[in-house]
Amino acid sequence: MDRQPPGDTDQSAAADGSLSCYRHPGREANIRCTRCERPICPECMVDASVGFQCPDCVRQGSGTGHGPADGRPRAGAGGAGAGGAVLADPRLVTKILLGINLAVYIAVLARGTGLVDELMLIGRARFHYGGPVEGVAEGQWYRLVTSMFLHQELWHIAFNMLGLWWLGGPLESALGRARYLTLYMISGLAGSALSYWLAVPVQGSLGASGAIFGLLGATAVLMRRLNYDMRPVLVLLAVNLVITFNPWGGIAWQAHVGGLVAGTLIAIGMVHAPRERRALVQYGTCALVLVAVMLVVVVRTAALT
Description:
Layout: E1 31-32, E2 39-40, E3 46-47, E4 52-53, H1 55-61, H2 92-111, H3 113-119, E5 126-128, E6 131-133, H4 143-146, H5 154-175, H6 177-198, H7 209-225, H8 231-244, H9 253-271, H10 278-304
Helix pairs in contact: 2-5, 5-6, 5-7, 6-7, 6-9, 6-10, 7-9, 9-10
């Protein structure tokens, strides 16, 4: 493999002086491989004992230099580490989540409010359109999950799915599929749990916003870990929080806050886990957040019943 000595001219430098990933020309890369010092983007980063390496150096260092040279990214900051599995499609889980949300939305269009009543988050039983609708307190805990994939208005699902696509793809590449899916699901559950705890019990809520805010928090943690410019993600977070707490209401702010807090905590555990105990710290953090979510649900249920 050709190596670029530190003193050589960087062929990946853009016209404005910024660096571009050597495998993805035009994509901004603010860090270099610790072995060959070529600039790499988040999709190409493989977590090493110190810093990050590019996939080519990982294959060479692990004795698999003859392996696939198709340019496909490997799991990054929270992924499988050196020699991690090749990600054939770095957005596979994101696409599946998008598909599930869209499928449920189409089902709602076909069946109407009846399906919404069956799947949305309701804390306690209420009468709706002349019939009783039971909630989580009556044992329908599945609503904590189904409400995460439920949308009723076009603007609502459009906004959330755009957020999922923009935030989810890079995170899936950086964390790996299993960790990314765990982050998404627990963040969404945390949003549902906080809504269940703090919102009016008979008030219904729905949407993937809790999970999306979890991805937003995780993005901020990852960008801070990689020493990226934090201003874009902080501006995006500020705008979303302003929308969340707008004076006109109509938004389940509890889900947004719950997802944001959970996603941030999980990402801290994933991104900053020490190499020698990486899996234990990463999944241990997820387990602790999940236990906290379950505790909130159990305590709230006891209070309502």
